[in-house]
């Protein structure tokens, strides 16, 4: 669907070709409202009336079968052939995102659903339909989870087309595009982490640990004493506070900025320890193995892959 937004025809003959192509890709011309009104617009548009989409929730990853339409192994648009991935596993790419809105509202997506610009959806050229993905605006670190159910955009310099709601949540409506990172989500792993997070939250509310209550004082002591932390084997930290080290930076200002960023994103305490000229940014303390793995997964989703499990000198 968004493919045609990117390839708007200037002549009736080319329009007919594109409508046929859209039908082959997923029936984009068969949605409500008739094709004439949509194709008469030379550009996409914002909603007619302002709608607050700041509270529109992320798409919830769940296991779904591949859509019956939109998943042919290869397809061709304007002479260029695209190969649909057999799986989204491990997919993570950086590129430019755009968005599509009023012009396509109510029309069929490539997998046969109706496009709703007020939901967290997206179009991608090669990911299987549907795919759940986290999209992060690299300019402001805002992120959303979308469900990819459409094909496009067919600009060479674009990676993904986002719904109006997703683009608004990422604060990119003003410029119309943004540089983003797109990371596919495994629904089974996401659900397992989500369930673990709920268990950890319930356990914390039932019996908040003493170590958690002492976190601010401990962090202040860490910063003033220059405490060092060293990697240890995964099972050798019984009786010690556990941290996940995200980075070791040469600049104190950069380390403090990363700490603030992580605390905002994770809603968990983050400390900076100093050793020689290095400033180590560490998430914690983490009370139990379930919490450690939950935070590790959150950091991986946020793009922090070089993590070290460390202990503090309690």
In short, what is this structure?
The protein has 314 residues and is an alpha+beta fold. The protein has helices at residues 2-6, 12-26, 35-40, 164-169, 187-206, 210-213, 215-225, 252-266, 289-301; strands at residues 74-77, 80-83, 92-100, 121-123, 131-137, 143-150, 160-163, 178-184, 230-231, 242-249, 270-275, 278-286, 308-311.
Walkthrough of the structure:
Residues 236-311 form the SPOR domain. Belongs to the RlpA family. Residues 190-238 are annotated as: Disordered. This protein has 314 residues and is of the alpha+beta class. The protein has two domains: 2-185, Barwin-like endoglucanases; 207-311, Alpha-Beta Plaits (2-Layer Sandwich). The chain has nine helices and 13 strands. The chain has helices at residues 2-6, 12-26, 35-40, 164-169, 187-206, 210-213, 215-225, 252-266, 289-301, and strands at residues 74-77, 80-83, 92-100, 121-123, 131-137, 143-150, 160-163, 178-184, 230-231, 242-249, 270-275, 278-286, 308-311. It is elongated and about 60 Å long. The model is unreliable at 2-42 and 208-239 (pLDDT under 50).
The CATH architecture classification of the largest domain is Beta Barrel
What coarse outline follows from CA principal-axis ratios?
A: elongated
Largest β sheet strand count, sense and barrel closure: 6 strands, mixed, barrel
Q: Give the helix level as a range of percent.
A: 25-40%
What is the CATH topology assignment of the largest domain?
Barwin-like endoglucanases
Helix tally equals 9
CATH class of the largest domain: Mainly Beta
Tell me the series of helices and strands, N- to C-terminal: HHHEEEEEEEHEHHHEEHEEHE
Would you tell me the structural class of the helices and strands?
alpha+beta
CATH superfamily annotation of the largest domain: RlpA-like domain
User: Strand arrangement, largest sheet?
Assistant: 3-7-4-6-5-8
Q: How confident overall, as mean pLDDT?
A: 75
Radius of gyration: 23 Å
> What is the total domain count?
2
Strand content: 15-25%
Distance between the termini: 58 Å
Protein name: Endolytic peptidoglycan transglycosylase RlpA
GO cellular component, one term: plasma membrane
Enzyme class: lyase
Organism: Kushneria phyllosphaerae
């Amino acid at each position: 669907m968004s493919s045609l937004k990117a390839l708007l025809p200037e002549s009736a003959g080319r329009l007919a070709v594109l409508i046929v192509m859209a039908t082959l890709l997923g029936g984009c011309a068969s949605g409500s409202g008739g094709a004439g009104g949509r194709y008469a617009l030379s550009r996409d548009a914002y909603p007619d009336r302002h709608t607050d989409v700041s509270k529109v929730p992320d798409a919830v990853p769940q296991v779904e079968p591949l859509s019956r339409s939109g998943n042919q192994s290869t397809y061709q648009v304007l002479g260029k052939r695209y190969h649909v991935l057999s799986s989204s596993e491990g997919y993570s790419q950086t590129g430019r995102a755009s968005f599509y809105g009023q012009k396509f509202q109510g029309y069929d997506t490539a997998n046969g659903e109706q496009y709703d610009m007020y939901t967290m959806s997206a179009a991608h050229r090669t990911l299987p339909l549907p795919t759940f993905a986290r999209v992060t605006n690299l300019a402001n670190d805002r992120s959303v989870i979308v469900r990819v159910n459409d094909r496009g955009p067919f600009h060479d310099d674009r990676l993904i087309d986002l719904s109006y709601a997703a683009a608004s949540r990422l604060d990119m409506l003003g410029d119309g595009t943004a540089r983003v990172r797109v990371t596919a989500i495994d629904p089974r792993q996401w659900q397992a982490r989500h369930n673990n997070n709920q268990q950890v939250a319930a356990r914390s509310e039932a019996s908040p640990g003493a170590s958690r209550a002492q976190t601010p004082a401990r962090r202040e002591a860490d910063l003033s004493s220059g405490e060092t932390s060293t990697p240890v084997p995964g099972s050798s930290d019984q009786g010690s506070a556990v941290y996940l080290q995200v980075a070791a930076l040469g600049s104190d200002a950069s380390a403090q900025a990363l700490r603030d960023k992580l605390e905002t994103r994770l809603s968990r305490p983050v400390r900076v320890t100093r050793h020689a000229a290095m400033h180590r940014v560490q998430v914690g303390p983490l009370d139990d193995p379930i919490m450690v793995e939950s935070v590790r997964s959150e950091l991986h989703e946020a793009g922090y892959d070089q993590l070290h499990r460390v202990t503090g000198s309690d």
